[in-house]
Write a structure and sequence with these properties.
The chain is built from 22 helices and 14 strands. The protein is of the alpha/beta class. Helix 4 packs antiparallel against helix 5 and helix 4 packs parallel to helix 6.
Amino acid sequence: MAASLGGTSAGSYRHAPAVAPRKILSRAAGVFYLLGGIACQLPPGDIRLSAGRNLTIHAIGYFELVIGLALLLTGHRWPRWTYHPLVAGGSILIAATIMLARGSATAEDPLITFALPMIAGTAFFSWRGAVVHGLIVDIAAFVAMTYIDLYASRIIIVLGGLACIGASVGWLARVGDRIEEDPLTGLGNRRALARRLEFAVESAARGNDGLAVVMLDLDHFKAANDRGGHAAGDELLVSCTRRWREVVPHERLLFRYGGDEFVLLLPGCSLGEATELADELRAGLPQEATASIGVAMWERGDSSSLLMGRADVALYDAKANGRNQTVAYGDPSQAAREIEMALKAGEFVLHYQPIVALEDGTVRGAEALVRWQHPKRGLLGPSEFISHAERTGSIHALGAWTLDRAVAAAAAAGTTMVASVNVSITELRNPAFSKLVSATIERHHLTPRRLIVEVTEGVYDEHDQQVITSLTEIRALGVRVALDDFGSGWSSLRWLTSFPIDVIKIDGSFVHGIDSGATSFEVLNAIIRLGKALGLSIVGEQVETERQAAVLCELGCDRAQGYYFGRPAPDLPASGLPRPA
């Protein structure tokens, strides 16, 4: 499989060698046809040929001249498959010229021109094509030489010479493939990618099969190089390549684009299949490595550069708005487009779950929870669409809408209502996110203190400086940051002291354990005391019983939310009033 991914053995069996891009192919074939055409116009050297035969030979020559000129002028735009009949036709035309000159003293002279289609056939096409064209040349030459009654010894010499020319040219052409191989990974390099991509685009344009491009970039590769030196970086690249070769299907093409960037060509592959494979590539990375991936699909009329540009845009989004993720330019299930259309159609709604003060049971805020009122599937919860939105980049539009609606509702609800909005790590990785928050609260004239941005512990797991920068900038505006589901992951004291946090929300599993006895009061008490010592506000989540609320209140928890206080509802609860029944 390794060779088929860009090496020179199995790959050259199925693909044309590196010396045969369409421009070279058209020029060489054009010159060959011109030489054949000129040879047909030369005087025969004797007068044994009839006028009719001479006229036919000259006609063949004129035809070859026209084809040669057309190839030189426009051949670079001809589909590659047209060169197969052109090269095979050259052998037939040479044989016809020799057979027409039978009886002439110069009938044998055109035999040397059989070397032209032999060179073209073995240098321009895959080994399979080279063998077929070599056989065509030998058969045409044999028929022509037999027809003019050439001695058997001469026939053997000519055919042997043509075979030697074909084998030598074919071998030399494929030795040139080594210039397309990355010496470190053994994959095809940028030059190989350009040639193979051009061929893949041509193939996609001829048929109805799809073509997807996957661009991969290792995250923080420079930092890995700085820590362990170039040897460590090289080992990481080789290790990634080795693992990816186990994932990439047979006959797919993987290339090292440069540095820590790789490109995978997937002819005949849909965007959905390409995106799934991209996720497999990320999952197959060595434990210490992550990758950002952009996926794009060829569309009719696209050039190879336009397709690569589209994939590069997707990769940029993956890196700028969230590393260690796959971003598709488009979406395999059309989810991205469907989400954006649903936003325009007003199908998304916010439901608000009250957050109450445990000391008196009054409503002090509400968490905004997005729902999709799908016209066919009914009301969908976030688990049905948020992952698609994050994966395709539509989370930015959806997140901006959610933030705008929640802030507008809080601004209209009164002077004390606080809105809590969940924000994904993808949004926080956008350098412009804090500006979006600032513009939103200014547009609706909301006091920044009345907005809380909720993030999960996974945000701090990423150790992404842009995430920390975004949260720091948000807090500088006066907006508070809440750490959701505290205790569900690998929480640590360092996070609470080093990262920008104002509120911790105790994970519901601790709260549920109050009734069952699975939760130690000492653990809850320690969490609440720790938060208080750090000056943080404490919120208990998923409170469903009176006992759970009472215990949290007794331990000093500030606020709580859950079905006991109210289920999410379309209307924002009024602040300062007793909790809903």
